[in-house]
Amino acid sequence: MKFYLGVDGGGSKTIAVIADEHGQEVARAYAGNGNHQVDRDQAEQSLTQAVDGVIAHAGLRREDLAAAVFGLAGADREPDFKILRPLARRLGITLHDVVCDTHIALRAGTNLPYGIACICGTGTNMLGIAPDGRAHQCGGFGYAYGDFGGGGDLAVEAFRAAVRDWQGRGPQTLLAQRLPEKLGYPDMAALYNASLDAEYYHPTPDLTPLLFEVAEQDRVSRSILARQGAELGMAASAVTRALGMERLAFDVVLAGSVVQRGDSSGKYVRPFIARVLQAAAPNARLRLLGTEPVLGALLLAMELDHSTVPEKVHSTLTKALAV
């Protein structure tokens, strides 16, 4: 029996899964931040914890694993891989590969060998692969580098909108009521002053779900989420043009907590991605990833071992890792 390891290391959590050659999930383990751009030492600790945990839960040894693929947020440029390849080697699995988390999302979400993966979780990232194998990335480095959105930026926008309402500098929003409640303060005045008095305060992505919770009744929240969708649409359009895929039919795989869980209804972000992307790629199809992205890492690990992935194996894994 062969066993394969897939790892998805993101800015908020790391998930490691071992599956057998028949596509049966054997074990799963979780850890924290796996993005070295956020914290290199913490990322290595999380990856080690997840890998050690899943191997222990499976009752296996490292040498029992036929192959492993690590799909990591922050695996964007060659300087990143110079850090991450040695880190992966230290995890002790002989046959392995390191790819960006966008790559595993794309592999998990489409049966075509080309397309675009759109990640919107803690941050955003966009990767396209053309039919000839060329790849092009857009984004992944934060607001100062042209990105907008993901849980980090959306949390700031939610906090900022609430402050502006409270101060009379912006439109009324339910966020001014709900944010203090969520953070344990009686009102915006108490929250505002406590934030200023803290040694350091920065809105964190766990505030982002509030935008979706109040969006039906709150125009300000809807406008923030619409901006997120339009920005993702612009990034996907840029990748489409860079790879010359304007006339092709392909999938744009949407992954990450904001689009998979937050906008699960498809009402607040996805329509604006589609609207912007339509002009650049009229035959593109939005496809919400219905599984954990780590599915793509497992499929790539099987292929790294020179194994074809039969439809039955793919289907079994897909059911096991559905979200």
In short:
The chain has 323 residues and is an alpha/beta fold. It contains 12 helices and 10 strands.
Instruction: Let me know the number of strands.
Output: 10
Q: What is the CATH architecture term of the largest domain?
A: 2-Layer Sandwich
For this structure, the CATH topology of the largest domain is Nucleotidyltransferase, domain 5
Order of helices and strands: EEEHEHEHEEEHHHHHEHHEHH
Tally the structural domains.
2
Kindly provide the radius of gyration, computed on alpha-carbon positions and rounded to a whole number of angstroms: 20 Å
Which structural class do you get from the secondary structure elements?
alpha/beta
* Residue windows where pLDDT falls under 50 for at least 5 positions: none
Instruction: Give the helix proportion (percent range).
Output: 40-55%
CATH superfamily of the largest domain: ATPase, nucleotide binding domain
Task: Give a description of the structure.
The protein has 323 residues and is of the alpha/beta class. The chain folds into two domains: 3-94 and 291-320, Nucleotidyltransferase, domain 5 (2-Layer Sandwich); 112-289, Nucleotidyltransferase, domain 5. It contains twelve helices and ten strands. The protein has helices at 40-58, 78-90, 101-109, 150-167, 175-183, 188-197, 209-214, 219-242, 257-262, 270-280, 294-304, 311-320; strands at residues 3-9, 14-20, 25-31, 65-72, 96-100, 115-120, 124-129, 135-138, 251-255, 285-288. The strands form two sheets. The protein has a five-stranded mixed sheet with strand order 3-2-1-4-5, with helices on both faces. Strands 8-7-6-9-10 form a five-stranded mixed sheet, sandwiched between helices. Helix 4 (150-167) runs antiparallel to helix 8 and helix 8 (219-242) runs parallel beside helix 10 (270-280). The two termini are 27 Å apart.
